[in-house]
Design brief:
The chain has nine helices and seven strands, in the order ααβαβαββαβααβααβ. By secondary structure, the protein is an alpha/beta fold.
């Protein structure tokens, strides 16, 4: 069976695979007003890093969802070790197993781009409360990305499309989101040049467990990132279903 980029990061248990890393995630969440009464969906939770942080930091109601069995195993182990009351669920972002208007906040980190994007965005809008917020971090094609390069990236990551910023904005609007903001925009290359990695982040394959085919996938990913990093970017979108003024929530930390 052919193995994918998702299989590789699951096998190696890579945390914070998105540009900006976990430091970006923590800052975004600290800027939101999250209380113990807030219901949060970690959409595509991976190893559970963000879900665990949410539960520890805000004592909020966290639902962690992923489709990959290896990611779910790692997340389950993490939550159990830290005694965190997180609802861990196997499911698809294109068909969320929740009722309408269930969540106050959805966090999707490098997960939406790997779905049928219109279906996933429609589901996010459905399960969010009317005043709910969607935070997404996803790869974005910069205007100068050539068609040949775009095709290569789509094939490698096994995604249906690689959207430009304008196309992302249009997709949000078609799914019913009205207030859409770009909180951060950067190319992958610029991010790599300026990032300060947390000691717990990044790619560190365990020496006792390797797989040549998956190792090749990781190396190919790194080469593509370097080759197209000036033409491949990412955006942090904050989208709401109704028009509400956005004011950053300042913490005492």
């Amino acid at each position: 069976m052919k193995q994918s980029y998702q299989d590789a990061i699951a096998f190696y248990g890579i945390d914070g695979a998105h540009p900006g890393g976990f430091q970006l995630t923590k800052q975004l969440l600290l800027d939101e007003k999250i209380t113990p009464y807030t219901k949060v969906l970690d959409a595509g939770c991976g190893t559970g890093q963000t879900s665990a942080y949410l539960a520890r930091t805000f004592s909020c109601q966290v639902y962690a969802l992923d489709q990959h069995p290896d990611m779910l195993k790692r997340a389950k182990t993490k939550f159990k070790q830290e005694h965190l009351p997180i609802h861990l669920i196997q499911g698809s972002l294109e068909k969320l197993p929740f009722s309408d208007h269930f969540f106050d906040l959805i966090v999707a980190e490098s997960s939406t781009a790997f779905t049928n994007i219109p279906k996933a965005l429609n589901e996010y809008a459905r399960v969010l409360k009317p005043n709910g917020v969607l935070l997404t971090i996803d790869m974005t094609a910069e205007p100068q990305l050539e068609l040949e390069a775009k095709t290569e990236l789509i094939q490698f990551y096994e995604i249906k499309d690689l959207l430009t910023e304008k196309e992302w904005l249009q997709a949000f609007k078609r799914s019913g989101f009205k207030q859409i903001q770009i909180l951060k925009a950067n190319t992958v290359l610029n991010e790599l040049m300026n990032i300060e990695l947390d000691v717990n982040e990044g790619y560190a394959p365990p020496s006792f467990s390797t797989d040549p085919s998956l190792e090749h996938i990781i190396l190919t990913h790194q080469n593509l990132t370097l080759s197209y990093g000036d033409r491949l970017g990412y955006r942090v979108f904050r989208a709401g279903k109704i028009d509400l003024p956005y004011q950053r929530h300042k913490t005492n930390s």
